Amino acid sequence: MAELTVKDVALRLGDNEILKGVSVAVPAGEVVALLGPSGSGKTTLLRAIAGLETPYRGSIGIGDHVFFDAGRDVELPAEERGLGLVFQSYALWPHRTVFENVAYGLKLRGVSTTEIKARVEKTLAQIGLAHLAARYPHQLSGGQQQRVAIARALVYEPPVILLDEPLSNLDAKLREEARAWLRTLIVTLGLSAIHVTHDQVEAMAIADRIV
Amino acid sequence: MPIAVYRLLVLGLTALAVAAPLSLVIYQSFLTAPFFDSSAKFGLLAYSFVFADPDFWQAFWTTIAIAGGMAAVAVPLGALLAFLMVRTDVPGREYLEPLILIPIFVSAVVIAFGYVVAIGPVGIFSTLAKDILGFVPWNLYSLLALILIAGLTHVPHVYLYSAAALRGLSSDLEEAARVSGANPFRVAVNVSLPMILPAILFAGVLVFFLGFELFGLPLVLGDPQDVLVLSTYLYKLTNKLGVPSYQLMAVVVVVIIAVTAPLVFMQRLLLRQAQRYVSMRGKGLKTQPLRLHGWRWFAFGAIVFWLFVTVVVPLFGITLRSFVVTWGEGVKLLDVLTLDHYRELTEYPNVIRGIINTLGIGVIGGAVAVACYTAIALAVHRWNSGWTRLVDYLVMVPRAMPGLVAGLALLWVFLFVPFLSPLKSTMVSIWLAYTIVWLAYGMRLVSGTLLQVAPELEEAARTAGANDLRVKRDVTVPLIKYGMLASWLLVFLIFVREYSTGIYLLGPGTEVIGSLLVSLWGTGAIDLVSALSVVNVVMIGVGLAVAVRLGVRLHG
Prior knowledge:
The complex is a heterodimer of chains A (about 210) and B (about 550). Chain A has about 210 residues and is of the alpha/beta class. Chain A has helices at about 40-50, 100-110, 115-125, 140-155, 170-190, 200-205, and strands at about 5-15, 15-25, 30-35, 55-60, 65-70, 75, 85, 160-165, 190-195, 210. In chain A, the strands form 2 sheets. Chain A has a 5-stranded antiparallel beta sheet with strand order 2-1-4-5-6, with helices on one face. Chain A has a 5-stranded parallel beta sheet with strand order 7-8-9-3-10, sandwiched between helices. In chain A, strand 8, helix 5 (about 170-190) and strand 9 form a beta-alpha-beta unit. In chain A, helix 2 (about 100-110) crosses helix 3 (about 115-125). In chain A, about 45% of the residues are buried. Chain B is mainly alpha-helical and about 550 residues long. Chain B has 28 helices and no strands. Chain B has helices spanning about 5-30, 45-50, 55-85, 95-100, 100-105, 110-120, 125-135, 145-155, 155-165, 170-180, 185-195, 195-215, 215-220, 230-240, 245-280, 295-320, 335, 340-345, 350-380, 385-395, 405-415, 425-435, 440-450, 455-465, 470-480, 480-495, 515-525, 525-550. Chain B starts with a helix and ends in a 7-residue tail after the last helix. The interface of A and B includes residues 50, 84 and 85 of A.
């Protein structure tokens, strides 16, 4: 897997200059933490990488695969970037069960029903929620919801997984556990990840590198 | 299908549906004869004819007087009612709330018929008053009575907007005035109501605007004394000359739209201002109801009296009338009771069709209309583009066309476009007219629901690999299902109530209860009219009961 590169990305929201030329590189298999105070544009950068915001300058891509290049007028829509994104609010679809939430990405990729079942079950087992597959999100605790959100982003094996303060909605004790668990999961699966946080301890515990 | 194609398709169709009737009317107004007449030439003849007609000017000024008068009645009463219901401890508020909204959902023609049979010259209450007092202390057929009734039946409109604004007001301001020695009435007039002035102003413009749309009340109550308003003038124009004088009708329509269009635009500006006013106040409001003490039952009595005059009198009147053979002085109720009028209803195939068609247009037509509104709302949902502004205005255009006018314009479209003609005498024409007339209302319902969908839920699907349309299908639409259901119920109520839009489209196969009522009233078949009115009220009552039961908010 190649390296995710963000070069000189600048972005405006309304009249606010949010990003003023940011560059980051995430080599394959590495976990990078974006650390900074609230309002410093970390989330915006993540959303720009995912394709949910459009910068006016700079380029984003993985290896030779260009997602966005203001100079060459290239912009791939979010659905064609194949990344995994975990939202701060988890954004689990309330009308779908845990299984259906996780399976959706595979269904979109035209995976056969039997294979979907196998892969979703495997992923749910990895996050320790295999027994809750038939539940709806509102029947889960905050920590369980967070795991489902991660499973949903992992199941189609994206080259990079983007995590937007995934631990901020958990209470202190749970957060510590989740931190260790998340680190182990990412390392065992050999993923690249960008992890946005404003918590220095969290950043150091999870990331190989902090920007 | 890429999203751009979908948007183009939906917006193109909407623009066509909105612009075609309007442009046809304007085009027709500049012709010297109906558009199907080969001798028609361009010219201002129709304008000079209409503007030279003293009846037209009479109708024009009467309309302004009625619209202004009803606003003068409805605005203070509606604002005061909202104050009592929202800010004070009037007894039984939760039971009064749905009752207050009844006049919005009952057809205006039914209310007008109800008044005629209840307090008309030989009405049920009039004969009662004559027995006791020796004379009838009111005259239903006067301009004043018309204004008063129009005003009283539009109190709920003012109530809705004032109540919404008052709910966002902190109660310590009122308590401060109370402590300083103001009685509840002074608190309302000096403190609470001035704070929500933008909302009240909006409601005032809305009621004035609705005054121009008034048709059922002036048709029924104004006719015996030859009081014409613009809409009834338009309606009578056909009979006046004996020939289809489309060009003259078109001129009247253009005049009506010339007045209503700026009013619609003004409402939009005012509403935005009023909402800003409300949203400026933060969260965590203290809303202790103001204690009225001795005034409690007085206020309760006042609300019940208003309900009695605007809801009970007409509905009781029309219901009783539908069960009696005749009514007049010296008639004993027990001697005249009958079910014949309902039996008679079944003897007229067009009435039976009308009842079935009305149910059909409400249930099926309502569902398809909500589907259309949803399709349009989805096309602009999360679309970051200047085109959404255009859609906003597009949707507002039909709002400026009162139902009667829109029905007429649609009729012309069906006559004008050859391949549409076969549809003219089917319910499709009625459905299209209704859907266009209520476009702004329906869009507001659906967009309100869409606003509640958190953007992350859609973004999560995007990153998972779903394109725009797929996101709408798999995430957005399932999430607004309940809201769509609620919208369907409200649209059902409105389609069942509607009477003016179907009048010009009325023919064999396109009967609906509303337009049948108007045409039957013209023939003087009061027995049939009262029975059919009750059928209509029952349909609406059932719909309302279901809505209240399901907890549907009765206003958008």
